[in-house]
Amino acid sequence: MSPKATPGDASAMSRIGNLDVKVEVVVIPVSDVERAKRFYESLGWRLDETPPGIVQFTPHGSACSVQFGSQLTSATPGSATAYLVVSDIEAARDALLAAGVEVGGVFHVSPDGPVDGPDPERRSYVSRATFRDPDGNTWLVQEITTRLPGRIEGGVTSYTTDTDLASALRRAAAAHGEHEKRTGTTDDNWPDWYAAYMVSEQSGAKPPE
User: Fold this and answer.
1) How confident is the model at residue 80 (pLDDT cuts 50, 70, 90)?
2) Can you give the pLDDT at residue 21?
3) Is the distance from CB of 127 to CB of 106 less than 8 angstroms?
4) What is the pLDDT of residues 15-72, one digit of tens each?
C-alpha cells in the first residue's frame, strides 16, 4: 500500500502532474431528456452509444462529450455554462442560425465591456457569441486561432477536422504573404514555414519571421 502523501508534497505533486488525465465528459442538467436530445441532434453533434438512462453527444472535432439524463445530476436545469471553441466565429454563428438555433450576435471583449461585432484585429480568445439550449444551459462560442503559451503540452499539435486544417492553412498563407512582403523575396521553402507557423498557433510559441 502506498504511503499517503501530505499536502504540498513535491514528489507526490510531480507524480500526479505527470499522470495523463483527459476530460472525457461534461454532464449538463436538463428537465426534459427527449427535448434536449432533439435540440442537440439539431446541432449536428454525434449521438454516441451509451448505457440506458444516459444520452451522450459529441461535437464535431471535439475530444470531450456532453451527457444528460434524468438521474445524472441534481443540479438545476439550465444552470450549466460551457465553452465551445471555433476557428471562425462568424462562420460558426451562420451555421448555427442555419440549423435553427437562436444565437446572439457576435461580440468582442474590450476594457470597457462587450462591444458588438468581432474583434477588429481578430485576436484569439476575444470574439464570442452565445446560445442556450431549451433549458437555458449557456454555450459560449469563442474564436481561438492562436493558443496562449503553454496551453499545448510538449509542442504536440493536431487538427481534428478538415475544416480546422483548411482554416489554419488559409491563415498560414496570409501570414506567409506578409512574410514575403517584408523580406522582398519569394520563399520557395514555404511548406516548412507553413508548418512552423501552424504549430506556433497551437502551441503558443513565437511564429516564424
Assistant:
1) very high
2) 82
3) yes
4) 666 677 889 999 999 999 999 999 999 999 999 999 999 999 999 889 899 999 999 9
What are the grid coordinates assigned to 171, written together?
Answer: 491563415
Task: Identify whether the C-beta of residue 141 lies closer than 8 Å to the C-beta of residue 130.
Answer: yes
Which residues are paired to 26 by β-bridges? 66
Long-range contacts of 20-26 (CB under 8 A, 24+ apart): 22/63, 23/63, 23/64, 24/64, 24/65, 25/56, 25/64, 25/65, 25/66, 25/67, 26/64, 26/65, 26/66, 26/67, 26/80, 26/82
Q: What's the mean pLDDT in 117-146? A: 96
Q: By the 8 A CB rule, do 86 and 143 touch? A: yes
150 closest CA partner among 86, 202, 207: 202
What residue spans of 66-161 are helical by DSSP H? 89-98
Is the CB of residue 133 less than 8 Å from the CB of residue 36? yes
Amino acid at 183: T
Which candidate, 103, 83, 82, places its Cα nearest to that of 94? 103
Instruction: Specify burial of residue 109 (Cβ count, 10 A radius: 0-12, 13-18, 19+).
Output: middle
